[in-house]
Amino acid sequence: MKPVTFRSPSELQSAGLIPAGDLETISRVAEQYVIALPERLADLINRDDPSDPISLQYVPSREELNALPGEAEDPIGDAAHSPVPGIVHRHPDRVLLKITSTCPVYCRFCFRRERVGPEKGAPLSKAELEAALAYIAGRPEIFEVILTGGDPMVLSPARAGEIARRIEAIDHVRVIRWHSRVPVAAPERVTPEFAEAIRGRTKSVFVAIHANHAREFTPEARVAIRRLAQAGISLVSQSVLLRGVNDSFEALADLMRAFLSVGIKPYYLHQLDAAPGTSHFRVPVEEGQALVRRIRDELSGLATPHFVADIPGGVSKAVMNLPDIERRGDDFRLRGRDGEHYSLPGAQKN
Ligand code: SF4
Q: Higher confidence at residue 70 or residue 52?
């Protein structure tokens, strides 16, 4: 049986996820930003807690109508770096390939919220996909192709496999990376057939799994994630630092440990991009830096992600982790996990 997904304010209200008095306001939100919340994820929500971290991520709120100056429809400049439809080429050795604009769930803080959803974009046509693959094939400097969207893991196994094989056939591409929320948001899609379809034959395959709270790792999600690992796919994480969701040391440590517990290496913790109507999720940079430093001080080295921000306009990411080294004159001083500083002998060239 196909899983149920709530797609309208009235469905969310019937499921007890938004108060009846908010229906009109949330309907105005829904006119701007698409809604999808699988029942499986909705079941994780504590309906008695208005600050439930799962609800905050997926259930629309009136704050989304509050677009601020400085927020942008395309905050990381995808369009400015798109030479052909579906391709974003920001850095010489890698490209994004955006196959679809749909997702199994629509996150309320999404930086592509003006471009995701069935009404905001169409999947790449056959001709567009051919042109995108020809673009990659014609540039030997492209080492890695990052499939993103939308969520590329909404594709059928046959379609995902076909695209994976076409990319693998390009000799100079050595790494294929899928960016996806599917393993936690719609784990039933990660069938043995799907894992088999995308596993690498001749190239390395990574899946960067997006999750923001430890409770998203349901037993079904764990099965899906293990299935990808068993297919020989390398797993890394991506999360967004979100007010009310993972902005405490305890929540962030639990999240990083949840990733590690299922074999996912914490990779990126993103500062929230300035997409319209998302300011209620924003955590100040210094707060994020202090949280990540404490993760580094108190947890296994494997648990520390790169804390990154995308420079507006799409220049690159910038890493914002506080450094463990500082220079005072000729003295290079290292910060230990005890918070003290120690000189590093021989750091200077003689
Ligand atoms: S799954 Fe990713 S692309 Fe889709 S709404 Fe969430 S953050 Fe945006």
A: 52
- % of the chain surpassing 70 pLDDT: 99
- Bridge partners (DSSP) of residue 335 are 341
Predicted confidence (pLDDT) per residue in 183-223, tens digit:
999 999 999 999 999 999 999 999 999 999 999 999 999 99
Q: Which one of 5, 112, 237, 310 would you pick to mutate in the ligand 1 pocket, going by the greatest count of ligand atoms within 8 A of its CB? A: 112
Instruction: Say what the pLDDT of residue 313 is.
Output: 83
Distance 342 CA to ligand 1 centre (A): 43
pLDDT value at 1 more than 70: no
Query: Distance of alpha carbon 247 from its chain centroid, rounded?
Result: 16
Query: What letters, b where the CB count within 10 A reaches 16 and e where it falls short, cover 84-105?
Result: ebbbbbbbeebbbbbbbbbbbb
Based on the number of CB atoms within 10 Å of its own CB, is 54 exposed (0-12), middle (13-18) or buried (19 or more)? Answer: buried
Quick one: pLDDT at residue 350? 65
Q: What residues have CB less than 8 Å from 270, skipping those under 6 apart?
A: 238, 239, 240, 241, 308, 309, 310
Six token digits for residue 15: 């499921």
Name residues whose C-beta falls within 8 Å of residue 58's C-beta, 6 or more positions apart in sequence: 37, 41, 42, 105, 106, 107, 108
Q: Give residue ranges with CB within 6 A of ligand 1.
A: 103, 106-107, 110, 112, 116, 149-151, 181, 210
Residue 133 parent element (H or E): helix 126-137
> Widest CA span of the chain, in angstroms?
73
Q: Which of 66, 74, 155 is nearest to 110 (CA)?
A: 74
Residues 72 and 312: beta-carbon distance below 8 Å: yes
